[in-house]
Amino acid sequence: LRDQVHYMASPGNHSSAPVSEFLLICFPNYQSWQHWLSLPLSLLFLLAMGANATLLVTIRLEASLHQPMYYLLSLLSLLDMVLCLTVIPKVLAIFWFDLRAISFFACFLQMFIMNSFLTMESCTFMVMAYDRYVAICHPLRYPSIITDQFVARAAIFVVARNGLFSLPVPVLSSRLRYCAEKVIQNCICTNLSVSKLSCDDITFNRLYQFVAGWTLLGSDLVLVVLSYSFILKAVLRLRAEGAATKALSTCGSHLILILFFSTVLLVLVITNLARRRIPPDVPILLNILHHLIPPALNPIVYGVRTKEVKQGIQKLLSRF
């Protein structure tokens, strides 16, 4: 992407040389309490990385967990870990060591990973909702529908669809002319935070991200809600004692987590649109937390609450 950043000198430019790096300014209005904020962020980061790593190792070592449902859970954990590692270490480096500089290439790479992996996570939620739909609504057909081949094809679809649709976002942003301004009023290289520093018109850039983002995330959310609607309908017909309660408890927690994931994205959009009425630090903090809270909660809600995973973790811990 670095090679795609072209600079064309013109009379209206403020500088005759292209900007080679950006400076990330976290919470411009609250610089003094950044060190205090780093403590809870560090704890959440350690929780997210530890929980997802434990889940991945447990599923890898426990033969009874070598099933499609747990392979999907492994995919979700991998996506969570990559998202955390892409964003949080740099944020903590800014808080602790004042390392605000980020190169063009690193900035646009971070932008690509954030855009693509967030939509990959949304798509994985959709596939997992379909998995639960088949398991509860068509239990006899489950082994023939949800196979290892299904998971492999689903994983390829998740990566290919979201990677291809997200790639134009950093490419379009990297092709803009950056004249003199290089201070990003954010902790991370979001498309809007970076592209608004450009001397060029960014209307198409903003429009593409809006359309692509809401097409991908919106379609995933609709299919998730549809799947859980069918699940709810089927669960309410269960007559075995405690079966409906157990199914509702499991699927309910899944749905709440998915809605939380989607709601935070919606709040981010609203706060960006209403930036003049909302302090700029609010969407910055929400953006950071969105890369921390779901990764910390996903392995607990999807994994540890599952009896088989809990037993697998106990076996793993007993080895040490």
UniProtKB/TrEMBL annotation:
GO CC entries: plasma membrane
Regions that span the bilayer: 37-57, 69-88, 94-118, 211-232, 252-274
Protein's UniProt keywords contain Nucleus: no
UniProt subcellular location: Membrane
An example molecular function term from Gene Ontology annotations: G protein-coupled receptor activity
InterPro entries per UniProt: GPCR_Rhodpsn, GPCR_Rhodpsn_7TM, Olfact_rcpt, OR51/52/56-like
One Gene Ontology term from the biological process aspect of the record: cellular response to lipid
The organism's place on the tree of life at top rank: Eukaryota
Matching SUPFAM superfamilies: Family A G protein-coupled receptor-like
Stored Pfam families: 7tm_4
Membrane topology category: Multi-pass membrane protein
Keywords: G-protein coupled receptor, Membrane, Olfaction, Receptor, Sensory transduction, Transducer, Transmembrane, Transmembrane helix
Domain G-protein coupled receptors family 1 profile residue range list: 51-302
Role noted for this protein: Putative odorant or sperm cell receptor.
Designated name of the protein: G-protein coupled receptors family 1 profile domain-containing protein
Organism: Sus scrofa
Gene label: LOC100515042
